[in-house]
Structure formats: structure tokens, C-alpha cells
């Protein structure tokens, strides 16, 4: 994925309230920077089944990116429009 494609979905620091108008239909998503437990990290925010879902994006010591306990290369697994 090239940087320009990523920039379409990355929105920097936004609050949950800020993203509501941006995610309106099933499958809409964005990636934002958040302050979580005193650390700056990324959140994947998805609109699905008429509600917003928020997922913290983690990275382990091996460089693997994961959400919760499932380790995948998320940026290549997401189907981008």
C-alpha cells in the first residue's frame, strides 16, 4: 500500500465524537491517533451494523501488528475501496 492510499484513511488525532460524521455507512473506516492509557497509539474505527466499533492497534516486539489477540498484517487484510 502506498503512502497516498494510507493517507486517505489516516486522520491524526480525533475524538470519538469527531469521527461520527465521517463514518456513515457499513464498511466505512478510518485510522486515528489516540492517547490510550498514557501512550500515543492508533485506533481502527469501523462503522458496522449501524454502530461504531473502536479497535486499538498494537505492535509486539517482533513488529507484528495486531488487534486484541489476533495477529495479522491488518493494512493488507483490510479490503480498501
TrEMBL record:
Top-level division of the source organism's lineage: Eukaryota
Keywords, in A-Z order: SH2 domain
Limits of the SH2 domain: 9-81
InterPro entries (alphabetical): SH2, SH2_dom_sf
Pfam family, any one: SH2
Protein's name according to its UniProt entry: SH2 domain-containing protein
Lineage of the species this protein comes from: Eukaryota, Metazoa, Ecdysozoa, Nematoda, Chromadorea
Amino acid at each position: 500500500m502506498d503512502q497516498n492510499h494510507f493517507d486517505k484513511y489516516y486522520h491524526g488525532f480525533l475524538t470519538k465524537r469527531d469521527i461520527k460524521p465521517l463514518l456513515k455507512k457499513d464498511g466505512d473506516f478510518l485510522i486515528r491517533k489516540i492517547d490510550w492509557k498514557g501512550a500515543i497509539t492508533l485506533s481502527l474505527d469501523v462503522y458496522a451494523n449501524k454502530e461504531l466499533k473502536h479497535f486499538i492497534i498494537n505492535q509486539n516486539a517482533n513488529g507484528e501488528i495486531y488487534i486484541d489477540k489476533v495477529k495479522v498484517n491488518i493494512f493488507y487484510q483490510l479490503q480498501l475501496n
